[in-house]
Amino acid sequence: MITLRKVNFLVFLTGWFFFPFNDFKGYSILGEYKNEACSFFFAFGFLILFMQFLKNGNFKIPINSKIFNVLLFFLLWCLCTTILNINTVWVSYFKQTGGIYRFIRQYISIIISCIIFFLYYWNVLESKKIYKLLFILRKTLFFSLIFVFGYGFLETLIQVFHITPIRYFLKLFDFFPFLDINYSGDGRISSVAYESPSLGNYLITISAWMFSYVLTSKKTFRFLPSFMVLFLAYFSGSRTALIVISVQLFLFLMVLYKMKEYRKVLLNGLVSLLLISTTFLVVNGNSILKDVDKKVESLYFFKNLKENNSNKSRLGMQYASLQVFIEHPIIGVGYGQETYYKRFKYPHWATVDNWEFKNIYNNHSITSFPSAYNIYTRFLAETGIIGISIWFYLIYLCITQSKKIFKSTLPNERIIGFILFISFVGLSLNWLQTDFLRQHGFWLCLVILIKINHERNSRVLFEKESVKLVS
């Protein structure tokens, strides 16, 4: 029998299939979510959830979870710090936007990701068996990756190997929803995402899920998902993705090495990677070597600071945010308010000969606010030492509790702990280069962590009660 619950679970999985798709025009009225295909499905799913609530009054909130309460406390502090700064928030004005309006839009955005979508995930997954859920969700992400890889592989042939006739095959993807065929000529790929960093963000989110195939399968296929992630990360040219996924990969290899039963698997994987790399070098060695040299050169962030406007902008924004924090260290300047202050703090070395500041960040006709390029420096400026302490505590709980689950004696729990631990580490590092909370993968992992903690606590309680009955 088809029920609203089953339909909503299908909507949930469909949303995660379309998670990387954001290379389409979208709807400006949706603000930050205007071109996120997955958000359309999650919003529709929440509407179904609301209909279920009206029908049977059933709506669950993990109110007993310490992690969820810390999250609520952080959101409450974001509101409090803005109220405490209301005198300046009221009169702030920049890029045709007042401080109050800016706060409302930013606060609604954070509520959508951290509360509405979070509670949607929780209510959809709360009744599911955690182990069955793991394999269904991972398979959905893998099918999505196959599509992303297929598109990205064709794009690589065009962008890197200059096989231009391939573009006619690429046009076939135009028939797929939430996708406008678009690729740059700079040798970087973005696949179904609108830009390379966005593709990198997606890969960081799913990497642990794909690495876990090595732990759960005995077939040669187990290496394929990991290879696809590494292939796309490399050719995307995203510095953040290259660095963060390298860290995630290192943690993964450390896990394999410490587990004796997987050391042979580790060796086989490295041999397979070597054979694949050798094949590419034989086919087109010169292009590959030049591309490797280019990628390595791009990782020298400070070396390229003078020549690279993007690097200057990123570091300059982070520097300006820190200057705002120094002047308002305790409670910050209010959520969503840092730009009203930091625009007077831009360092000269970042703005000189940098067209981005002149044409975008200081251009009043472009109403979008400049990015902070770092969630931590943004929270320091906007919420002060109190807010950032709460946020760091939330991340600390996520990583330590995931690590604890990974040390479980139950195989399935170990796999889930592995995915959560590597995902939380990667996404936390990724926030060093992004300043938004629309990290859907983080909130999904948070829901799974709360759910498995609830199941573990219930099992321990049951075992204790059983001992009492026996005694």
Notes on the protein architecture:
Strand 1 and strand 2 form a beta hairpin. The chain has 471 residues and is an all-alpha fold. It is globular and about 65 Å long. It has 19 helices and two strands. It has helices at 4-17, 37-56, 66-84, 86-91, 99-125, 130-159, 167-170, 196-211, 213-216, 224-236, 239-258, 263-298, 309-327, 338-342, 348-351, 355-361, 375-406, 411-430, 440-470, and strands at residues 93-94, 97-98. Helix 3 (66-84) packs antiparallel against helix 17 and helix 5 crosses helix 19. A two-stranded antiparallel sheet has the order 1-2.
Strand content: under 5%
Structural class: mainly alpha
Structural Rg: 23 Å
Number of helices: 19
Element-by-element helix/strand order: HHHHEEHHHHHHHHHHHHHHH
Principal-axis shape equals globular
- Number of DSSP E strands: 2
Instruction: Identify the quaternary structure here.
Output: single chain
Q: Taking strands numbered 1, 2, ... along the chain, how are they ordered across the largest sheet?
A: 1-2
Largest sheet, in brief, is: 2 strands, antiparallel
| Termini Cα gap | 45 Å
Helical amount: 55-70%
Mean pLDDT: 86
Low-confidence stretches: 461-471
